[in-house]
């Protein structure tokens, strides 16, 4: 769905990527100049100052900004337009032509079938050129000595000393209020506590209420939005149903637009890499202990009139009889139909050497924190793969299916079976400090 609104000041506006302007960029130019060249491809640099432009899945070029907000390095790849000349060179030219244009070009090494050459520009920038089969396939310019931003969460946090395994119990009727000790650590599926119907988050993509996945009561060390925020409820798009995307201008359904932005004061909308929508809501003790919330009924809103509700909401309103009609036997869906939920249990994880250490993919990235990758030689010696038996956990050793996200050590990792997620058989991670969500399969 597309919702009309103001432009993001960190983006490059409505202009497309401009290869001509990009070819003119040089180290030390300001971020505003880079943003003009990148156009709509500019989403701001990541934690290490990097940004890229792709044509589909094909990399065209990338860059790195300094800690002071100036361009430190820029690279042009094989798919960059061959008619753009950069310091006398262009993609696709022969090595002979390159040496004619830059007589001081000197060989700097060889990796597999790629030969690297280096030179220095008049401005003092390092020029790196890469050749394969005698043709220029890549070109880079960088300025030595500029201060680069550190990757976020490079170092261990000694304040964090505990990790926790999380698991669920069998489904039980979820009391609307006055819940006993069985529910003290939270629950999966069912309804959330403590928020009003108006504060229930909506899907910007499908328009319907997001599904409540779980409410997790957090140990004090993981209450990253203030000590008074003791629990988090996570909501998610319906991932088990193929709903129709909607498009809404502000004057098309003003009531729905007002409801979309009528958020809980500690509400954090998020998106995953496939543009699926999530929302985390941090709760006080009083909210966690409060009455269960009811989702809004939006069936009569012009934007959603005639569209089917999400599967979970249809089950909730239709009860068990609807499950038989749908031919749906999934126990998770039955929780919404029958008013049940799975109580959460939690126990401290013992002998995890990675507590308080941000997880990264490569050994050199873990050098400052001391994080040990589970399936590395050292991790195997410490039997860290044993933690695969506990896919749901707060902090400690992360075991993603693919890459490691740039998350803080204050995170919750969970499998899709926790609360009827669809991660393609993979696992997800929720950073409780940065309020970002990632998953892979």
Structure description:
By secondary structure, the protein is of the alpha+beta class. 14% of the residues lie in helices and 25% in strands. The protein is built from eight helices and 19 strands. The strands form two sheets. Strands 8, 9, 10, 11, 12, 13, 14, 15, 16, 17, 18 and 19 form a twelve-stranded antiparallel beta sheet that branches. Helix 6 crosses helix 7. The radius of gyration is 26 Å and the shape is globular. The chain starts with 18 loop residues before the first helix and ends with a strand. The N terminus is likely disordered.
Please name the defining characteristics of this protein.
441 residues; alpha+beta; twelve-stranded antiparallel β-sheet; seven-stranded antiparallel β-sheet; 19 strands; globular
The rounded Rg comes to 26 Å
Spatial shape: globular
Beta-strand level of the residues, as a percent range? 25-35%
Residue-averaged pLDDT, rounded? 88
Number of helices: 8
Short description:
This protein has 441 residues and is of the alpha+beta class.
Topology:
Elements (H helix, E strand, L loop, with lengths): L18 H5 L7 H8 L11 E6 L2 E8 L5 E6 L18 H7 L4 E6 L2 E7 L5 E7 L2 E8 L21 E5 L3 E2 L12 E3 L22 E7 L11 E8 L17 H7 L6 E5 L5 E8 H4 L22 H16 L4 H8 L1 E9 L28 H5 L11 E2 L16 E5 L11 E5 L4 E5 L1
Antiparallel strand pairs: 1-2, 2-3, 3-7, 4-5, 5-6, 6-7, 8-15, 8-16, 9-15, 10-11, 10-15, 11-12, 12-14, 13-14, 16-17, 17-18, 18-19
């Amino acid at each position: 769905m597309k919702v009309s609104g103001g432009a993001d000041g960190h983006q490059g506006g409505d202009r497309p990527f401009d290869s001509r302007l990009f070819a003119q960029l040089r180290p030390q130019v300001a971020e505003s100049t880079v943003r003009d060249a990148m156009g709509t491809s500019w989403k701001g640099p990541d934690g290490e100052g990097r940004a890229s432009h792709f044509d589909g899945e094909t990399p065209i070029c990338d860059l790195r900004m300094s800690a002071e907000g100036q361009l430190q390095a820029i690279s042009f790849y094989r798919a960059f337009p061959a008619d753009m000349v950069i310091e006398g060179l262009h993609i696709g030219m022969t090595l002979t032509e390159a040496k004619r244009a830059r007589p001081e070009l000197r060989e700097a090494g060889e990796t597999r079938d790629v030969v690297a050459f280096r030179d220095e520009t008049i401005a003092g920038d390092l020029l790196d050129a890469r050749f394969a089969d005698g043709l220029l396939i890549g070109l880079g310019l960088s300025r030595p000595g500029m201060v680069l931003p550190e990757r976020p969460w490079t170092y261990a946090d000694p304040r964090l000393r505990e990790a926790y395994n999380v698991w669920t119990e069998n489904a039980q009727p979820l009391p609307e209020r006055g819940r006993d000790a069985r529910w003290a650590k939270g629950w999966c599926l069912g309804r959330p506590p403590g928020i009003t119907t108006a504060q229930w988050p909506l899907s910007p993509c499908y328009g319907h209420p997001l599904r409540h996945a779980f409410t997790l009561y957090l140990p004090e060390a993981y209450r990253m939005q203030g000590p008074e925020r003791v629990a988090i409820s996570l909501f998610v798009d319906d991932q088990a149903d193929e709903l129709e995307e909607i498009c809404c201008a502000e004057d098309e359904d003003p009531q729905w637009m007002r409801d979309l932005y009528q958020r809980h004061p500690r509400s954090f909308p998020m998106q995953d890499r496939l543009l699926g929508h999530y929302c985390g809501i941090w709760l006080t003790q009083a909210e966690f202990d409060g009455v269960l919330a009811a989702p809004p009924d939006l069936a009569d809103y012009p934007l959603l009139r005639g569209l089917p509700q999400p599967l979970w909401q249809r089950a909730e309103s239709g009860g068990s009889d609807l499950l038989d009609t749908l031919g749906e036997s999934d126990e998770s869906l039955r929780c919404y139909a029958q008013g049940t939920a799975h109580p959460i249990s939690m126990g401290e994880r013992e002998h995890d050497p990675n507590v308080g250490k941000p997880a990264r993919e490569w050994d050199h990235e873990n050098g400052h924190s001391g994080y040990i990758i589970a399936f590395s030689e050292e991790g195997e010696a410490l039997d860290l793969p044993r933690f695969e038996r506990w896919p749901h956990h707060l902090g400690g050793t992360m075991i993603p299916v693919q890459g490691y996200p740039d998350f803080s050590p204050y995170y919750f990792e969970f499998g899709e079976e926790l609360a009827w997620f669809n991660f393609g058989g993979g696992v997800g991670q929720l950073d409780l400090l940065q309020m970002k969500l990632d998953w892979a399969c």
